[in-house]
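Weekly sync, protein design subgroup
Attendees: M.S., D.O., the rotation student, P.L. (late)

Item 1: inverse folding check
M.S. brought a backbone from last month's batch and wanted to see whether the design step gives back something sensible before we order anything. D.O. pointed out we never logged the input encoding, so this time it goes straight into the notes. Structure tokens as presented (300 positions):
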């Protein structure tokens, strides 16, 4: 393949389509890496589906479904809707730290000119935390009541998100032996409470985030929607991090994270314990609207 002066995602999509591979949608704990996966794993058709490339973002359609329902309180009325599932990928340098659960749909029409916008669009403004290089979105459209088309001509909208502009790393050497410590980063107080190894060979990190001068209600809404960057290493490899719960009070939120080794233990013996933990805390973010426009979709 020879690709010159083309957008990043157009090049990636061309390579994946021609090589019959797809993208691993959870990405990698290395923010500069995007992994490929075999065509028979997961959403293998994503790179061949209808797509929208807008700047550093790629949005693809992964499924289309029409739903018909009747409420028995009004059996004379059939409610019909079209549900789209989309998947949006971000270039490594433009990965959001948070994004909305539901996209905003600005325009939706079929090939007969019928509007497919929902009139009762009760979209939830809540944000969810970053889970890799991509995320799902669900779009609900109205099925035309008269003269429905054979195609969805256009669906145009955006996804509200926050992108990290700056961050500050906190390095903890030999975390299994490190004492409890507190540090203020970007005006926020974070406490490294503990780092322990369990019987299965996994490790658990516990961090405490102080509310500070944040509004209590806002703090409760965002306490579990801001994921720090976590990188755990030993002399032989790296670990994958997973959020594993926590609790919150009016003044602080306690978060737990689990780590599993990315590669099997060497045959000669058990793997070494981690020698370094890096906690990367965002210090500046910017609100962005990630646009997408999908055209010429089949009407289910």
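Designed sequence read out in the meeting:
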């Amino acid at each position: 393949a020879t690709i010159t002066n083309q957008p990043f995602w157009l090049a990636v999509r061309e390579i994946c389509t021609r090589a019959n591979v797809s993208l691993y949608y959870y990405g990698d704990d290395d923010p500069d890496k995007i992994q490929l996966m075999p065509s028979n794993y997961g959403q293998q058709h994503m790179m061949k589906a209808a797509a929208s490339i807008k700047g550093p973002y790629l949005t693809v359609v992964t499924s289309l479904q029409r739903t018909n329902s009747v409420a028995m309180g009004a059996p004379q009325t059939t409610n019909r809707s079209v549900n789209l599932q989309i998947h949006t990928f971000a270039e490594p340098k433009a990965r959001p730290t948070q994004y909305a659960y539901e996209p905003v749909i600005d325009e939706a029409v079929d090939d007969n000119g019928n509007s497919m916008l929902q009139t009762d669009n009760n979209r939830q403004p809540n944000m969810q935390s970053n889970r890799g290089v991509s995320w799902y979105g669900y779009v609900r459209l109205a099925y035309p009541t008269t003269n429905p088309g054979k195609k969805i001509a256009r669906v145009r909208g955006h996804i509200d998100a926050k992108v990290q502009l700056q961050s500050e790393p906190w390095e903890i050497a030999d975390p299994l032996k490190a004492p409890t410590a507190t540090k203020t980063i970007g005006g926020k107080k974070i406490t490294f409470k503990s780092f322990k190894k369990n019987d299965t060979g996994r490790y658990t990190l516990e961090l405490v985030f102080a509310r500070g001068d944040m509004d209590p209600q806002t703090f409760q809404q965002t306490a579990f929607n801001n994921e720090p960057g976590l990188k755990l290493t030993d002399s032989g490899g790296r670990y994958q991090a997973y959020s594993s719960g926590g609790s919150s009070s009016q003044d602080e939120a306690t978060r737990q994270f689990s780590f599993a080794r990315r590669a099997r233990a060497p045959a000669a013996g058990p793997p070494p314990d981690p020698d370094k933990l890096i906690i990367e805390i965002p210090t500046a973010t910017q609100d962005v609207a990630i646009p997408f426009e999908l055209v010429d979709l089949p009407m289910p």
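Discussion: The chain has two helices and 17 strands. The first strand starts at residue 21 and ends at 23.
Action: P.L. to compare against the previous round before Friday.
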